[in-house]
């Protein structure tokens, strides 16, 4: 009954949007939002009403650079036990992947949490490196783990954590894609709250809505962005107020501040993003893989193959193109044989489009 009611509400909202007879282009930056859009056919409904929603840099695996994967692979090839999330193991880099290294005999374990990686370190004798990826959503767990006083000496973290807002600031500064609104990610916002988005509002005067993940959530968020544009009053609205607060999760933010320092660095598809990488502070450097194994990592360099150079994953992450506009999509780059990270990760725009067989 509730689903039927939501469907009626969604149709009614989309009809109202269509009646304005305006065209707007928005962007979200969350893999779960992308799945909701495509799984339920919302993207097509929105387009018919004059609204295009582009997919941005919201997939943690996708935005992790090839150089970072190469370094983790080098650690595995040098006898370290590497613990990674499942989506990471198939990302192809330098004509290889962590999965291939595992098949060749490297000790690579798929884990669902940093706690699992920690337990591995407690029972094996070799060094264990956890590849820590994700935005502010997953970084607090990494921070709390590093703050523990009884960490095994053989446990290390290779931090690929990233701060979300700086990447969106850089993307908007690049100005490649003309946008009239942003659908901000609910999961990240639970941690950081609503205040950090004020920077985007001040610098770019662009409407923003923090959205939940149900089809009705997204449709309300799109409608609110339309209304902000019509009124000419860009603000930060919190559609996901049942979960997201103004200040966010204060404890989570405190532990991140304790453990991590902000560094400039690259995202896949977005170069030189200021203060966006979460490096590990000197206080916790005894468990920082990037510091403790510099001798291995110094020679671990990414060399792009001709096929990888044809992959347009970076442009997909910046919203410049849709997945099906990449010449490799569902031809050379498929679910069975991915070329780019966007086809590997369950949160990747290419994988989602290929999986649900939806054309833009």
Give an account of the 3D structure:
Helix 2 (31-39) packs parallel to helix 19 (349-356) and helix 8 (139-146) packs across helix 13. This protein has two domains: 2-58 and 167-238, HypD, alpha/beta domain 1 (Rossmann fold, 3-Layer(aba) Sandwich); 61-164 and 249-297, Rossmann fold (3-Layer(aba) Sandwich), CATH 3.40.50. The model has no long low-confidence stretch (mean pLDDT 95). With 360 residues, the protein is α/β, with parallel strands linked by helices. The strands form three sheets. The chain has a five-stranded parallel sheet. The chain contains 19 helices and eleven strands.
How much is the average pLDDT? 95
Topology as a string of helices (H) and strands (E): HEHHEHHEHEHEHEHEHHEHEHEEHHHHHH
Query: What is the percentage of strand-forming residues?
Result: 15-25%
Radius of gyration: 21 Å
Shape: globular
CATH homologous superfamily designation of the largest domain: HypD, alpha/beta domain 2
Helix percentage? 40-55%
CATH uppermost class of the largest domain: Alpha Beta
By DSSP, the count of extended strands is 11
The main pleated sheet reads as: 5 strands, parallel
State the separation between the terminal residues, measured CA to CA.
30 Å
Count up the helices: 19
Secondary-structure arrangement, i.e. CATH architecture of the largest domain: 3-Layer(aba) Sandwich
